[in-house]
Structures are given as structure tokens and as C-alpha cells.
Amino acid sequence: MKILKMTFAMIIIISFNHCSFSNKSKEFSSDKIFYNGDIITMEGNTPQYVEAVVTKGDDIIFAGSKNEAEKYHASNTEMIDLKGKTLLPGFVDGHSHICMYADELLQANLNPPPIGEVENIPQIIEKLKEIKKTNNASDTDIIMGSGYDQNFLAEKRHPTAAELDKAFPTNPVILKHTSGHMLVCNTAAFKMAGISADTPDPTGGTFIRKKGSKELEGLVQETAMQPFIPFVMKVGADEKEFDKLTRAQNYYASCGVTTAAEHLAMDTKITLLQKAAKNNKLFLDIVALPAYIYAKEVIADPNMQWGKYQNHLKFQGLKLAVDGSPQGKTAYITKPYLTEVEGCTHDCKGFPAMTQDMVNELFTVCYKNNIQLYSHCNGDASVDMMIKGHEFATQKLGDKDKDRRTVIIHSQIMRPDQMKKYKEYKLLPSFFTNHTYYWGDVHVDNLGQERANYLSPMKDAFDNGVICTNHTDCTVTPMDQMFLLWTSVNRLSRTNKVIGANQRITPYQGLLALTVNGAYECFEENTKGSIKAGKKADLVILDKNPLKVNVLDIKNIKVQETFKGGKSVYKL
Length: 572
Known about the structure:
With 572 residues, the protein is of the alpha/beta class. It has 20 helices and 23 strands. The strands form four sheets. Strands 1, 2, 3, 4, 5, 21, 22 and 23 form an eight-stranded mixed sheet that branches. Strands 7-8-9-10-12-11 form a six-stranded mixed sheet. The protein has a five-stranded parallel sheet with strand order 16-17-18-19-20. Strand 11 (205-209) and strand 12 (216-222) form a beta hairpin. The longest helix is centred in the N-terminal third of the chain and has 26 residues, at 2-27.
């Protein structure tokens, strides 16, 4: 009996040891091991490197020495030799419009060089004719083009309805300005939208008229664009929309982006994204922000799970749009523009697209319902409105210290005193340093050197301990994260002038804004933004190290491969 008991005990011990060995073997197996390159973890305020990274499934399970990483090697482990290239965490998009990019795949590209080819109004007409032919459009179908910029047209003005009518007498034609804050349309498009000379200007928007009359000239600004939204955001058959969305995701992945943004989602795009998620059509994470005009509906919707991913889609918060664009001179500022402003004759400071009461109300309802709030603000007067909205809501609700992470997108024409308020209230700016290149010279003319030099003041944000991100605002500028990094470090204009030398940041700070700070902005710092065991295996391989090349060469760095949740989603 004693022997039997001993034998039974030995069996238990042997079984236990066997289970432990099996679990250990399983624990130490891996899918991929990355090694032999510059692996920048983005952990901490100074660059930290490791020799190897191990992934299993969606996650990083080890980051450290090559010797330790070898313990995770199994028969099916893929060994990825970086061959001296650089591995970084996947880029988290601070602000863009991935659905808009998808839509513009079927629209005429009216951007000026270096993005496009358009340099004058006749070329706009030719591009529109080409897209009509390419899309096999009839003489009554809507023709759309995107990206024109009057600042870089030979005529130095917007196209007119009359010019579009001459080429397209029966097609409704809509041209979206590069800023996204204005459009030009022809007579057929005005008729389609129910707009006539007798239509009054809405609050926060303008129909530009011919001088000395009520007749519509063609240019439509800010909230006056709302009647055109159903046509601009028109959605086709699901498969066609899914195909465009797949192409858009491929483009973002080619830029190293693993978490994309759809900020200011209209109702049709909210539905499209939900359908895409349900049908497993998303392979990048998409952080979506419904537009504030749907606030009542989406906040009351019991099916809206704020802050939670469902098949790669997360509705993170609500997006406000308080003003317009500085290059279009509709951004709301406290001191006047220095150059002529369309539709304005004196004291031209742009205008708000919302009233302070509207801002206060939306702050309060979002804060009360624990919904993160984002807002487009280009001018310092609109930033003042956001600060007042935050103060109003926190005082009313009595929760000044709550972790809100309210994001003020663009934060371009700021003042130093506002940066102090950002720090005090823990407001997060998402800057747009690409403006220093694309419109830096324009801003000097429109605003003067002092204000232009303080555009997107990233250095001040880092110096004040304000967590900030940086973004391309795609489709306003291309989704090119290395070019974006280059603009934040160099701040060079098209004419090679430095716009705000004292606001240039280091390449490492620039990478923080694109990775871990981006994750923090949308409450994902525990799962994304750096290379660390337990975080998502969202990774990007670059052909060179941004921290080691000449800063002027950063824009030439190429993405070699992008991994989302450990799976390769792009390879050069």
C-alpha cells in the first residue's frame, strides 16, 4: 500500500512537471523575431535601443537582448533580419480623414505641385474633363475635384461658377479646396443643393457674391457648405465603398500608419465604417469621431460603444469644428489678416463656425457623458473659445481634475499664454507642422513674421510639458509621416525659408509625437506607441534611422514594411 501511494505521488509529480514544461514551451514560442537593426523602443524621453523584438499573435512578448530573444525561437518562428534597417512602433495618426481619402480616389486631383500638377484654372478644367471621361460620367452626373489652392494658381484667385458653367453647362461641378473649408461650384450644383442668390448666409459661413450684387460667384465657405454634404459624401454600393476603403488602408499602411483616423465623420461615413467593421473589411485600427452636428443622435444611441474597438473600429469621441483655415483666411484670429480677405472689407479676422454657447453646451454634454472631445481650431480666437468651453463645463460639473484629454486639433495661430492654459487644463494640441512647408510663405504674407513663426509651436509644448501630437490632416497634405517629421524638425518653407527657428524640435521629439503621444491622445498608451512586452505588435521598418541621418534627409526615408498585430500589411 505504501509503495502504491509512493507510485501515485510520483505520477502526480511527473504529470505536474510535464505540464509545467509544456506551458513553458508554449510561453517561449513565438511567431517572429526581429533583430540586427536599430530598434528604437520609444520608451522614455531619450532614445532607447534593444537588440531584438519577439512577437506572438497580436502582441509583443519580448524586447531586449538577442541572447534572451533566442529563447523564444521555435520551429515555426520567422526570423526577420533587419539588415541594419530601423524598427519603430507603428505610427498612430494624430488627425486625418481616411474616408475622405477613399472618396478622392475617384475625384480629379487638383493639387498644385509637388502633390499634383495643377498650376492654373484652365488645367483645373482639363482635369475635370479627364475624370468625367475616366468615370464614364453622363452629362448630368456630378463631377468632383479636390485639392485646388488659389494661393498657387497663376491667377491667384478661386475659379468661378461662370468658368465651370462654360465647360460643364449641365453637369453639377464641385471643387473642394485643399483646406477642406471651402468649395467652388457651378450653377447646376447650386441648383442641385437648393441655393440661389436669395439664400442668406448661414451663421459661421458665407456664399461669396459678385461685387455690388447678390449673384453667387461660386465660392462657398465653412458652414455654407452643409447643403452640399449629401452630394459630396454620397455613398455607393457597399462593395464599391469597401474597395475604396481597402485602397485607402493600403495607402496609410505604406506610410507606416497602423492606427488611422476618420475625424469629423458624417452620418454616411459612420454607417459605412460600421458596415466595414461588421464585414471584416478593416485591417488597420480606425479611430472615428462623429461630427458635432450629430451629437444628439450619437450620444443618445445605446449601440454606440465609446472608446472600445469592434473589429478594428473605435468611436473615440465627438469632433467640433470651431473655425476655418489660415491659408483660406477663414481661421478665427484676434488680430486682423494683413492681406485682402474675400467677402470682407475691414477688420478681417476670419469668423467662428460655432457660437460660444454651442461650444459650452457640447463641452458640458460630452464631459457629463465621459465622451472625449476633439475640436478643429486654427486661430487663436477659436482656441480661446475652446479654453472657455473647458472652463465652463468643468466649473458646471465640478470635476476639474478628471482625465479628459481634450484635443485641440491644429492649434496653429496660437499665443504663448494659451500654451500655459493647455498645461494647466491638460489640453492636448495636435499640431500641423506641414503648414510651415506648404503655406509657410503664405502665412508670412497673411499674418506677418511674428505670428507665422509661432505656427504649431511644438518646441514650446515640449518645453512646457504639454503632450502633443503632429498630423498630416490627409487629404489636406499627403499621409507621409517621414515628411511630417522632416517639417517638425526643419520648419522649411517652399522657398527654403525657416518658419520659426525657435520652434524646431529634435527628431526624437518628432517621433514621440507620431507614436507614443499619438497613442496617449486616444487613451491607448498602454497598448500602443512603443515597443514593449505586452503592447500590440504594430511595427514599421524604415530603410534608415531618423535619429542618425542628416536632418535635411529625413523626408527621403522610406517605409520598407508595416506590421499590424504582427501581420505584414505592407511591403515595399
